[in-house]
Amino acid sequence: MKAIRLFATVFAIMLILAAPSFAQNAPTSTFLTNKATASLGVGLAIIGAAFGFGKIGASALESMARQPEVAGQVRGAMIVIAALLEGATFFGLLICMIALFV
Amino acid sequence: MVLASINPFEHVLDTRHWNFFESVRIGFDIRAPFSKFIILQLIAAGLMFAVFVPLGRRIRDGRLPTSKLGRVVMGMLEWVRDEIAIPGVGEHDANRFLPFLWSVFFYIFVCNLLGMVPFLGSPTGSIWVTAALALCAFTVIHGSAIIKTGPTHYLKAHFPHVEAPFPLGPIIAFFIAGIEIMGHFIKAFVLAVRLFANIFAGHTVLAVILMLIVMAKYAPGYMFWPISFGSVLAVTALSFLELFIAFLQAYVFAFLTSIFLGMALHPEH
Fold first, then answer.
1. pTM of the complete model
2. Contact residues, chain A to chain B, C-beta under 8 Å
């Protein structure tokens, strides 16, 4: 609960600080072109990815400590799941890069 | 202070002008239908032919390879069979799909690794190349299922048996089948985008960090050496990560292809 409140406060402060840049003229392009907003999107995607990686790593380490003889298989599965999660993160990154540069 | 914009993407994207050293204009132009990535893919295919055709002939004649490269490649071939093909499609069909899985794995691996060689690039950094690879995987997955069971039977296998009264049952089954078929296309699309985004983002990050040295001309003079050292160290570390990502993305692509193959050939009831 404290984490959610802290996160909401940080988010509100970021939006307030980014408010002056919302008042600039947008270049003529059909997608969302404000660079600050697109960069914020990447930051949000990274938050989700870091949270997911933390959970994967924590459960993998715990199971490796609990049962050392399957440590190799656990490590392999952990890397595969991390690659899949990274693919999802790069989806968000791709959309933000399209918003920034196209 | 006006910052001249550097473009990190031109080092990662496909071009018709192959640059070696931009500042002294060493590079060459490529004629119309061809481009840098086409030449690089031909190089990758040529490398694979040069390694695998002699190896295949040697094994066909009954001798095991004795050279270091031969033994390493043979170990990797067996590893792909044991870790990718058999867990995905099962032991019975593994040998039938091994040539395709071997080709996919090694082609993506070599294409990714070409990006780590100086002056070359990685063709998988283009969405069209990875889309073509995903299209090949999609065709093999559904084509082999259709060849095995027939088109109508394969389509009917998507509709589950729903225990519900008359109007509701077929409607639910129809929606579940629709979602599963949409899932086929989405899975193929995600295969392409995952590989493309990983390689493209990795090389873009490398280019951006290296170009910090170029941007050091806007910093005070004494900052040039710290920026250069920091940038080169970071790029070295990230290059090791890129080598690992090159292998991992090839493995993930091949592994997911074999999993989808197994799911299409043996639908779980």
1. 0.85
2. 79-80, 83-84, 86-87, 90-91, 93-94, 101
